Amino acid sequence: MDASSRRRIYLLRHADVAYYADPARPVVPEEAVLTGAGLEQARAAGRALAEVRLDRIVTSGLARTDETARLVVQGLEHAPSHPAPEHWPDLQEYRLGDVSVIPDGELEDAFLGPFRGTPHPSATYLRGETVGSLLKRVSAARERLYADPGWNTLLLVAHGGVNRAILSWVIAGSGPFYAQFEQSPGCINIVDGEPASFVVRAVNATPYDLAQLGPRSTSVERIVEEYRAYRASPDQA
Questions:
Q1: Mind spelling out the 3-state secondary structure of 157-195?
Q2: Which residues contact 78 (CB under 8 A, 6 or more apart)?
Q3: Backbone phi, then psi, for 109, in 5-degree steps?
Q4: Residue 23 pLDDT level (bands cut at 50, 70, 90)
Q5: How far apart are CA 168 and CA 180, in angstroms?
């Protein structure tokens, strides 16, 4: 195979957002936008990818992925062939249940269950969508993506669970979901090649903290703590 002909995906997780920072008003996940730190993380990713020549941009269509993609593209030295992001709803994060009805003692498992080890397909995120359901819709999206010969280098900005589903498929094919792939806010993963002949170049590279000197908790563990503080606040609505 001519290595120069390998297609490449720059697979990013959206940069930092805060769902429960305001004890009086939680943010609806579908409407969450980047925090100040998130804006800087996305700009750092743009600087890291400055010399990349992109053919296409795909996002989940949610504000936090579009905003991340926009800031990355602003940092590129060459304008993408197709600069407008394509919105693929199949690549949105887990569809949530109602976190407000989950007892305090069950919060950790409800948040972290599908983000530990190799969860069963029936495991749910916050009593909402199952791992199996997420894998199924992400599988349909990536099959559609790779069936299209009209791109060589692509930016895909999605979410922690979605990126894990894609990376699990790249490593092991259809079936397993490896939650061990941490996806920090604004991280970059790089995958070359085609199904059955992938080359993984990078996983969870964070341009703003390459040595991972920040907290050793995972991004989902930090959301749990943010939610606990929100729930305990006397000011919550």
A1: EECHHHHHHHHHHHHHCCCCCCCCCCCCCCCEEEEECCC
A2: 51, 52, 53, 54
A3: -65, -35
A4: confident
A5: 10
Q: pLDDT for 42-63, tens place per residue? A: 999 999 999 999 999 999 999 9
Strand partners, 34: 17
| pTM across the whole model | 0.95
- What is the radius of gyration, based on Cα positions, of the chain? 18
For residue 156, what are the domain limits?
Answer: 3-232
Q: Is residue 222 part of a domain?
A: yes
- Does residue 166 lie in a domain region? yes
- For 4, 93, 95, 108, 116, the CA distances from 228, given in Å and listed in that order, are 49, 21, 20, 10, 19
154, 10 Cβ separation under 8 angstroms:
yes
Taking the C-alpha atoms of residue 124 and residue 126, their distance in angstroms, rounded to an integer, is 6
Residue 237 resides in a domain: no
Rounded Cα–Cα distance for residues 119 and 179 (Å): 7
